[in-house]
User: Fold Pseudouridine-5'-phosphate glycosidase from Mameliella alba.
Amino acid sequence: MMSPIKCSHAVAEALAEHRPVVALESTIVTHGMPWPQNLEVARRVEATVRDNGAVPATIAVIEGTLYVGLEDVQLEALAQSKKVAKLSRADMAVCMARGGTGATTVAATMIAAQLAGIEVFATGGIGGVHRGAETTFDISADLQELAETRVTVVAAGAKAILDLPKTLERLETLGVPVMAYGQDQLPAFWSREAGLRAPLRADSPAEIAAAHRMRARLGLPGGQLIANPIPAEAEIPRETLAPIIAEATRDAETHGIAGKDLTPYLLQRIYELSGGRSLEANIALVLNNARLAAGIAQELSALAA
Ligand code: PSU
Ligand code: MN
Assistant:
């Protein structure tokens, strides 16, 4: 059977030589940030991975093919397009079978990374349990994916628009290790602290790589969530954000926004209500995550498989 993925030359070569590779998602580009900053950020994230000794593999579905490692022209076309689907585990195969084009969420990117043999992935924030999930049942497929797919995901915690205590509970039930990096507190995306203790803590890329491999030796499926706090100079304090998130959440309710549209809507609304500040913080934290992920990828490639 032919492999459904197509690795770029740089990614294929690095994987064949067991050199460090970091997977990157594309939904953050198409649905998470406005044009033209999205393209600029996508390029800077790739450059940061390279500067830190790893090969970036941005993942997306383009005309039915699941690309692992995009050429710059492909990245630019995606960033500019307004009618790209947002693909998760449920719809990626359908989109590919139809020859469609779509950006991959954390869940879909993890599936592609595992298929390609990439063990670590950098993003901004993962999806999680939405506020009001007790009535809406809105829980991101990213959580289930972390339980099933063996990829270590570096994020700045779960987005503060979510119900963070419920998200942690769900991850615990699913058996997903959640490690705060370099601190005891769980980070909350735009802020360094969520006001919650993280279940686990890691202080070096080597520790994270060793734990990743130990899970495999135990025969455990699933990945790890590394919650890397945003750099102090870029953070927005929790108190500043709380009323903005509350207003954005109310607006979403008023306009009946639900399902796949909710996360992109909230991010855009918070961008407007914060006068662009949320985007600056988002950029800083993604770059920070790319650096850490490259360090983990180096440690993984130094360890025997
Ligand atoms: N983090 C961001 N911007 C984003 C996302 C995360 O800073 O756009 C995307 C990721 O692709 C994540 C998705 O997997 O939002 C979660 O969407 P949902 O809540 O619909 O599962
Ligand atoms: Mn959802």
About this structure: Residues 5-304 form a domain with the Indigoidine synthase fold fold (CATH 3.40.1790.10).
